[in-house]
Amino acid sequence: MVSFPMLDRTDRAIVGLLQHNARLSNKEIAAQVGIAQSTCSERIRRLETTGVFRGFHADIDPTVVGVGLQAMIAVRLHRHETTQVARFRKYAEQLPEVVAFYHMAGTNDFLVHVVVRDSDHLREPSPLSRRLPTSKPRSSSNTPGSAVSPTTETTRATRQESPRRRQG
């Protein structure tokens, strides 16, 4: 069973503030939460060491860096075996167009989030389509392949809190 760190109301407030703006200073966080700076610093350090924070990242505007299209690619492997899953995972990790991918339960094995210049880049024969199986039709649940769904809008969730356990 996985052990989760217990987060109190103050910890949750700190997590929420840093999810919204990871560049807040310790002084600003302490003031907003209503605790001493030294206490705040220690709580943030504990949240990091217990794995609550996996990292702090910049939120990039895709259009500014030449990304005109994002797509989700649902991939079904020929066989759902440990070696094939590991090989696909390693393969997807090295593709520059892949932002994230999710190992799924259900009909598809992976959901791959890609960023490309435009629809031609997504369809062009060399880079992406040869490297990810995006053109094979899926006529039955036993057929390997994928389905491409371009995104029309991206909204970034700023909070990812775990559900609170009922006490009582």
What are the SSEs and their pairings?
Blueprint: H1 9-20, H2 26-33, H3 37-49, E1 69-76, H4 82-93, E2 98-103, E3 110-116, H5 119-123, H6 127-131, E4 145-150
Antiparallel strand pairs: 1-3, 1-4, 2-3
Can you give a write-up of this model?
The chain has 168 residues and is an alpha+beta fold. The chain contains 6 helices and 4 strands, in the order αααβαββααβ. It folds into 2 domains: 1-59, Winged helix-like DNA-binding domain superfamily/Winged helix DNA-binding domain (Arc Repressor Mutant, subunit A, Orthogonal Bundle), CATH 1.10.10; 62-150, Alpha-Beta Plaits. 33% of the residues lie in helices and 16% in strands. It has a 4-stranded antiparallel β-sheet with strand order 2-3-1-4. Residues 134-143 have low confidence and may be disordered.
Count of β-strands: 4
Structural class: alpha+beta
Named CATH topology of the largest domain: Alpha-Beta Plaits
Please work out how many helical segments DSSP would assign. 6
